[in-house]
Specification:
The protein is mostly helical. The protein folds into 2 domains: 10-188 and 238-399, Up-down Bundle (Na+/H+ antiporter like fold); 411-449. Helices cover 71% and strands 2% of the residues. It has helices at 15-48, 50-57, 72-98, 104-132, 147-157, 163-187, 194-212, 218-235, 240-249, 262-286, 293-299, 303-329, 341-350, 356-365, 370-396, 399-410, 427-456, and strands at residues 7-9, 60-61, 70-71, 333-335. Strands 1-4 form a two-stranded parallel ribbon. Strand 2 and strand 3 (70-71) form a beta hairpin.
Length: 462
C-alpha cells in the first residue's frame, strides 16, 4: 500500500475557523489591553495607597445565611472568574465538535503541546524547590497560560502573526484551561459538602434538560446558573467549575437554517463581558502586590518564587516547543514550509505569560499564608513580564516574514468578503478575477493612449 501523505503542521486553517478566530481574537485582544491596564492600576494602587487597596479588597458583602458573605477579592476570584471559565467551557466544546480538536489526528498536536507545556513547568518548579528546600505545594502555579494577556502582547508589539500560529496559540490555551480546571478541582478541594454538591449536580441536570428541550429565556437560565454556582461554592469544590460545566453543555453545532449555534451565539454575548469586565476586575483585586526592593529581591532568592519564574519562562517554552517537536517526530506531520521552528519557539515562549489562572492557583496553593501569596504573585508578574519581553523580541526578528504571510492570507482582490486564498479552486472566482484584470488592463491602455495623445500635441506658443 502506498504510504499515507504527511500532514502539514500549522498549515492553512479552514475559512469558518478563520472567521471564528478573527472575531474571538478581536475581543480577546481588546480584553487583554483592559487586563493590562487593570494590572497596572492594581500595582500602582497597592504600592501608593496600600491601606485603601487592602480595605476595599477585604470588604465583605453577601448573604451570610447562604454562606456567601465574601470579600470583594473573593467575589472576583470565585464569582467573576466563573464567567471566564464558562466562556472557556464553550470554547472547548466548540473546538471539540467544530474546531481544531474535532479531528483526533489534528487534536493530538495542541493536546500534546499543552500537556508538555504544563508538565515541564511543574517539574521545573518541583526541582527548584526540592534542591532549594522550599515548598512543593505551588507546583501548579506556573502551569497556566493567559490567552488574553498573550494576545494583548501581540497587539502591543504590532506583530501580524499568520492565522495558523494564532489558531495554535488559541487552541493551546483552550486545552490549557481545561487541564487547569482539572488541577483546581482535583488538587485544591480539601473538604466536600456532599449535600451541596448533589444540589449542584441536580441544578446542572436541570440546566442540561432545559437546553435539550430548546427552552429559551435568559430569565430562566441566569437564576438557575446563580443557584448552581452558589451550591458548587458551598460544596467545597472551586465555584468556577460550575461555569465550565455549564459551558460544555451548550450545543455548538449548527442546524439547518441557523447562522450560529446556540453556543456560538451565547459566547458572542458573554465573551466581551468576560474579557472586558470579569477578568480585569479579578486582576484589579489580585495583582495588587507590594513591589518593594526586598520583595523583588526575594523573588530570585526564595525557591518557591524562583520556581514560579523559571517554570513560566523556561518550563513553558521548553515544554510546548518540545511537545510540538515530539508530536511531529512521532506522527506523520511536517512543519508548514512557510514557517520556521523559530516561530513555534516564539509562540511557546509567549505561552509563558501565566497571569490570571496562575494568580488564582497561587492563592489556592498557599491559602492562609498572605506573605507567601504576595511573593508568589510578584513572581507570577515578573515571570509573565519576562516571557512577554522575550517572546516579543523573538517575534520581532521574524516580523517581516510574518507580515508577508498575513497579508497574503487576508488579500481579497475581488472584494467579496472572502480572502482569495480560500477561493483559488473556485471557477467563479477565476472568472471574477479575469474580469477585474481585463478592466485594469483597459484602464492602463486608456491612460497610455491619453499620454500618447498629449505628447503628440504641438507645444503651445510662449
Amino acid at each position: 500500500a502506498p504510504p499515507s501523505p504527511r500532514r502539514t503542521l500549522l498549515g492553512r486553517i479552514s475559512l469558518p475557523e478563520r472567521n471564528y478566530l478573527a472575531e474571538a481574537l478581536r475581543t480577546e485582544t481588546v480584553g487583554g489591553m483592559i487586563l493590562l491596564v487593570a494590572a497596572i492600576v492594581a500595582l500602582v494602587w497597592a504600592n501608593t495607597f496600600g491601606s485603601s487597596y487592602t480595605s476595599v479588597s477585604d470588604f465583605h458583602f453577601g448573604p451570610e445565611s447562604l454562606g456567601l458573605n465574601l470579600s470583594v477579592a473573593h467575589w472576583a476570584a470565585d464569582g467573576l472568574l466563573a464567567i471566564f471559565f464558562f466562556v472557556a467551557g464553550v470554547e472547548l466544546k466548540r473546538e471539540l465538535v467544530a474546531g481544531e480538536l474535532r479531528d483526533p489526528r489534528a487534536a493530538a498536536l495542541p493536546v500534546v503541546a499543552a500537556l508538555c507545556g504544563m508538565a515541564v513547568p511543574a517539574v521545573v518548579y518541583t526541582l527548584v524547590n526540592v534542591v532549594g528546600g522550599g515548598s512543593t505545594g505551588g507546583w501548579a502555579v506556573p502551569t497556566a497560560t493567559d490567552i488574553a494577556f498573550a494576545l494583548a502582547v501581540l497587539a502591543v508589539i504590532g506583530t501580524s502573526l499568520p492565522n495558523a500560529l494564532r489558531a495554535f496559540l488559541l487552541t493551546l490555551a483552550v486545552v490549557d484551561d481545561l487541564f487547569a480546571i482539572l488541577i483546581i478541582a482535583v488538587f485544591f478541594t480539601e473538604q466536600i459538602n456532599f449535600m451541596a454538591l448533589l444540589g449542584a449536580f441536580i441544578g446542572l441536570a436541570v440546566f442540561y434538560l432545559l437546553l435539550r428541550r430548546n427552552v429559551r429565556g435568559w430569565y430562566i437560565y441566569i437564576p438557575l446558573a446563580l443557584v448552581v454556582w452558589g451550591l458548587m461554592y458551598n460544596s467545597g469544590i472551586h465555584a468556577t467549575i460550575a461555569g465550565v460545566a455549564m459551558g460544555l453543555m451548550l450545543r455548538c453545532t449548527r442546524r439547518e437554517g441557523e447562522n450560529h449555534s446556540p453556543g456560538e451565539h451565547i459566547e458572542h454575548l458573554i465573551r466581551p463581558l468576560s474579557a472586558g469586565l470579569a477578568v480585569p476586575l479579578f486582576a484589579l483585586f489580585s495583582a495588587g502586590v507590594s513591589l518593594s526592593g526586598d520583595a523583588l529581591a526575594d523573588v530570585f532568592t526564595r525557591p518557591e518564587t524562583l520556581g514560579v519564574v523559571l517554570g513560566l519562562v523556561v518550563g513553558k517554552t521548553v515544554g510546548i516547543f518540545g511537545g510540538t517537536w515530539l508530536a511531529t517526530r512521532f506522527t506523520k506531520a511536517e512543519l508548514n514550509k512557510e514557517l520556521a521552528w523559530a516561530d513555534v519557539f516564539a509562540v511557546a515562549s509567549l505561552a509563558g505569560i501565566g497571569f490570571t489562572v496562575s494568580l488564582l492557583i497561587g492563592e489556592l496553593a498557599f491559602a492562609g499564608d498572605e506573605v507567601t501569596i504576595n511573593e508568589i504573585k510578584a513572581a507570577v508578574l515578573i515571570g509573565s513580564l519576562t516571557a512577554a519581553v522575550f517572546s516579543g523580541v523573538l517575534l520581532k526578528l521574524r516580523v517581516r516574514r510574518h507580515r508577508e504571510l498575513h497579508e497574503a492570507e487576508e488579500l481579497d482582490e475581488d472584494q467579496d468578503g472572502v480572502p482569495d486564498i480560500y477561493e483559488q479552486g473556485d471557477p467563479a472566482y477565476h472568472l471574477r478575477m479575469a474580469a477585474i484584470h481585463e478592466k485594469k488592463a483597459a484602464e492602463h491602455r486608456r491612460l497610455a493612449q491619453l499620454a500618447g495623445a498629449a505628447s503628440n500635441e504641438p507645444d503651445s506658443p510662449a
